Amino acid sequence: MITFLVGELCPEDSDLLNVLSLIRTIIKYLQILIPIALILWGSIDMGKAVIAGDEKKMKEAQKPFVQRLISALIVFLIPFIVNLVINLVTNNASEWKACWNKAGTYNKIDVSGDLE
User: Fold this and answer.
1) Domains in the chain: how many in total?
2) Which domain holds residue 54?
3) Cα angle 111-14-95, degrees, rounded to a multiple of 5
4) 8 belongs to a structural domain
5) What is the pLDDT of residues 13-23, one digit of tens each?
6) Is 9 inside any structural domain?
7) Measured in Å, how far apart are the chain's first and last C-alpha atoms?
């Protein structure tokens, strides 16, 4: 347990909560956009091979397409895998888990740059 922290780890309007909320938002968008982009690029490559009508090009386009599908699935599942590993490895991170979960529902991100 970290003894120098006094009180709750991430109270409302704390900098830590703002940063974690921003990180969760970025991860959420990347988790959706990267798999879509990988699948689109793979579909375009596969479509080009099909339109060309060359059997050799179609076979060559299948391997990268399958690799992109697998990559898209892995990128989509990374947050789940990381949470699973953290839950298996740690047993005293309940405050951090609560803060991470709280950041998922926290919508107020202050990027104004006001330093007080």
Assistant:
1) 1
2) 15-105
3) 130
4) no
5) 778 888 888 88
6) no
7) 30
